[in-house]
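Reading a protein record of the kind used here takes only a little practice. The record below shows the convention in full.

——
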Amino acid sequence: MNNKLILGTVQMGLNYGINNTNGKLSFETSCQILNKAFDLGVRTLDTAEAYGDAHKVIGDFHKLNPNLIFNIITKIPHGDIKDIEYKVNTYLEELHVKFLDVLMFHSFESYLNNKECISVLNEFKKIGIINHIGVSVYTNEQIESLLSDDSITVVQMPFNLLDNTSIRGGVMEALKKKGKIIHTRSAFLQGLFFKENFDNIISQKLSSELLAIKDFAKLENINLSSLALSYCLNNKLIDEVLIGVDSPEQLTDNLNALNYNLNQDLLDKINAIKVKDLDLLNPSLWK
C-alpha cells in the first residue's frame, strides 16, 4: 500500500501544524525524509505555491538526486490567476520536473474564481504536461458542486477518525460513481490527535471525542498514528492518503500502519463518532 501514500511537504516550506514544536524543517532534514520516502516506495509529493519555499526544496532535491524524481501534486493559489500558462511553466522549472501529476485549485473559491483557466489546463493535459486537474475542498456541499464538472478528475478532501465515514461516506460514494479520484488529507488533523494536554479551544471543545479515540487505541494496543492512518488507508473509496512527517523516523513509524487492519467492531465505534460542530474539524477556521 505504499503507493497509496502521498507525502505532504508543507512542513518543508513553512512552520505548520497545531502540534508542531520544531518549526520549519531544515533542508537537510527535508532531504533525509525525501530519500527515505523514495526508498520505502512512496512516489508522490503534495505541495503548493503557498507553502513557502517548498517548491524550491523539492526542486533542489531533484537536481541533487536525478534518479529520485517524485510525481508532484501542486496547487495554484487562492487569488485571481492572470497567466495560468506562465504559472504552470514556472512550477515545472521550480520543481525540476517534466510534468505535474495533479494541478489543483487550492480552494473551492479559487476554482470558482478561475474557471476560465480550465480550458488551458485541459490543453496541457492533452500534451502530457498535466495528468489531472483537481480541487482541494472542505465541505460536502463543495464536493457535490464538483460532481458535474468532468474536467475535475481529482478531489482532495478531509478524512480522519473524527471527520469520518458518518460525515463523508455519502459524498465519497457519489464521487466514485462519477469516476473521480479521491485524495484525503488531515489524517492526523494537523497533529491534534497527538496532543497530550487540551490546552487550546479546539482540543477542549473536542475533548470527549479525542479521549474516545485515545481509548480505542489503548484497547486495540495500537499507537494512535497507526490507528488514524489505518482508518484512512483501509477505506476502499479512498485512492490516496496524504500525510506529513517531521523526520525520517516518523515516516517509517507511519508506514507500520500499513500492516494493521481494523476490525469491523472498531470501525463501527469510530464511525459512530459524529462531531456536531463541523467547523471544529476545519483547520482553516482555527484561530
Summary: The chain is about 40% helix and 15% strand. The two ends are 35 Å apart (CA to CA). The chain has one domain: 2-281. The domain at 2-281 is CATH 3.20.20.100 (TIM Barrel).
